[in-house]
Amino acid sequence: MRQPRPRATPFSSVQFSAWHPLGLSKLSLSRPCPDSVPSRRMEPGEELEEEDSPGGREDGFTAEHLAAEAMAADMDPWLVFDARMTPATELDAWLAKYPPSQVTRYGDPGSPNSEPVGWIAAYGQGYIPNSGDVQGLQAAWEALQTSGRPVTPGTLRQLAITHQVLSGKWLIHLAPGFKLDHAWAGIARAVVEGRLQVAKVSPRAKEGGRQVICVYTDDFTDRLGVLEADAAIRAAGVKCLLTYKPDVYTYLGIYRANRWHLCPTLYESRFQLGGSARGSRVLDRANNVELT
User: What share of the chain is helix, strand, coil (3-state, %, to 5)?
Assistant: First the structure.
C-alpha cells in the first residue's frame, strides 16, 4: 500500500501527520507553528536501547508502554524541514530556530515551541513516502500470535518482505546539549544535500533523559544500503554508538524487553578513529560477525 506524500509546508510550519513514524499517513495536514553523553560500551550480545518515545524513557517500561508513547508522539504535530519545497539556504536558520535540545515535547513558553511537538524531521529532495502494507502486516502478525507458532527474527523478516514493510533506521542516542544539536545539524544537512533521505529527532522531555535521532533507509534487507547510510552518518561527524532497527519491529510494537525476548536491533556501529576510511566498525548482532 503506497502511502500519500505528506502535504508540503514551509520550514516555519509544523506538519501534523498520523500513522507512520515518518509522517507517511492516511491523514496529513499542517498548521502554523508558534513562535551528551555517549552510550556506555556494551558487548555484542548485550541488549541495546532502540527507538524510544520522544524525550526518552525510564528503564523498566514495558514494550507496550514504549509503543503507546511512540504512537502518541506520531499523532502530535511535527516540525519539518522539507527540502522538496524549501530552499536549502534556509536550513541553517531553521536549525538555529529549532535545536532539538531546546524544543520541548509538550511545549513551554520559554522554549522555541509553546505547543506539543512529536518529532523534528528533515525530508530530502528525493524522498518518496512508501511504508508498504502496514495494515496487512499487522493482521498477519495477529494471526501468527493466535496460531501458536514460534515468533522468531526469521518469521518477522518474512512478514516484512511479504507486506513490503522494508524501511529501517539507524538510531543515535544522546543527552540534551551541544553534542545532540551538533549531530542533528550534521544529519539534517546530509539529508538536504542528498547523502541521506530522511531523518527525525525527538524533542526534549520534561524529565530530561537522552533523545534519539533516527536516520532512515528504504530496505533493511539491503545490507549495502544500510552500510552506506552508516558511512554518511559518520561523514556528518557523528562518533557515538549507532544501532539499526527495521521498522517492522516498530509497527508491531516490539521494543526492548518484549515478551518474545527478541532483540529488535540488527546491527551496531562503533566509530573507529584512524581505522578504515569509512570511519566505523559495523557488527551483525544476530551472527556476531563484523561487516566492516
Answer: 25, 20, 55
Residue 136 confidence (pLDDT): 97
Question: Counting Cβ atoms within 10 Å, is residue 12 exposed (0-12), middle (13-18) or buried (19+)?
Answer: middle
Please report which confidence band the pLDDT of residue 73 belongs to, taking 50, 70 and 90 as the band edges.
Answer: confident
Tell me which amino acid residue 252 is: L
Give the residue numbers spanning the domain of 109.
63-290
On whether the CB atoms of residues 7 and 29 are closer than 8 A, the answer is yes
Which residue spans within 128-232 are E strands per DSSP?
168-174, 198-201, 211-217
> How many C-beta atoms surround the C-beta of residue 84 within 10 A?
13
Please state the φ and ψ torsions of residue 289, each to the nearest 5 degrees: -125, 135
Digit-coded pLDDT (tens) for 225-235: 999 999 999 99
Amino acid 10 reads P
Domain-located, residue 12: no
Strand partners, 269: 242, 282
The residues near 193 (Cβ < 8 Å, ≥ 6 apart) are 88
pLDDT digit string, tens, across residues 162-185: 999 999 999 999 999 999 999 999
> pTM for this one?
0.79
H or E stretch including 270?
Answer: strand 267-271
- Split into its structural domains, the chain has a count of 1
